[in-house]
Amino acid sequence: MTTTSGRKLLTSGWWGRSRHPNYLGDWIMGWAWCLPCGFSTPIPYFYVVYFAVLLWHRQLRDDDACRKKYGADWDVYCRRVPYRIIPYVY
User: Fold this and answer.
1) Spatial contact of 85 and 59, defined as CB atoms under 8 Å apart
2) What is the CA radius of gyration of the chain?
3) Which residue in 48, 8, 46 sits closest to 26, CA to CA?
4) DSSP secondary structure, 1-35, as one string
5) For this UniProt entry, which segments traverse the membrane (predicted)?
6) Per residue in 52-77, is it b (16+ CB within 10 Å) or e — as a string?
7) Which distant-in-sequence residues (6+ apart) come within 8 Å of 38 by Cβ?
8) Whole-model pTM?
9) What is the DSSP string of 30-60?
10) Confidence (pLDDT) at 28
11) Are the CB atoms for 73 and 9 separated by under 8 Å?
12) How far is CA 65 from the centre of its chain?
């Protein structure tokens, strides 16, 4: 999608399904680091909880910055790509 200023916003591939699909990949990678520790203690899983909160907050800040940068074009983009991180969920 081309904005009124001539910049491009991706609306195809993974970025056509969610605005921050790379954050989902990062979070899944966090699980890959925790799961080998097993389930005898919850300590390794504090990381994925912390990371989920960090990524959630970051996408809010990113969306706010993009709304300021692209203006009304960002609203059009958000209608085309309604999901933020997890396609069809959030």
Assistant:
1) yes
2) 16
3) 48
4) -B-TTS-B---SGGGGT-S-HHHHHHHHHHHHHHG
5) 28-53
6) eeebeeebeeeeeebeeebeebbebb
7) none
8) 0.78
9) HHHHHGGG-SS-SGGGHHHHHHHHHHHHHHH
10) 94
11) yes
12) 14
Helix (H) or strand (E) holding 86: none
Q: What is the mean pLDDT of residues 15-22?
A: 92
**Tens digit of each residue's pLDDT (9 = 90 or more) over 19-76:** 999 999 999 999 999 999 999 999 999 999 999 999 999 999 999 999 999 999 999 9
Residue 6 has pLDDT above 90, yes or no: no
- Measured CA to CA, the distance from residue 1 to residue 8 in angstroms comes to 6
Q: At 82, is the secondary structure helix, strand, or coil?
A: coil
What is the DSSP secondary structure assignment for residue 81, as one 8-state letter? Answer: S
Helices and strands in the chain, H and E counts = 3, 0
Please give the pLDDT value at position 49: 96
In sign, the C-alpha dihedral spanning 26, 28, 29, 33 is positive
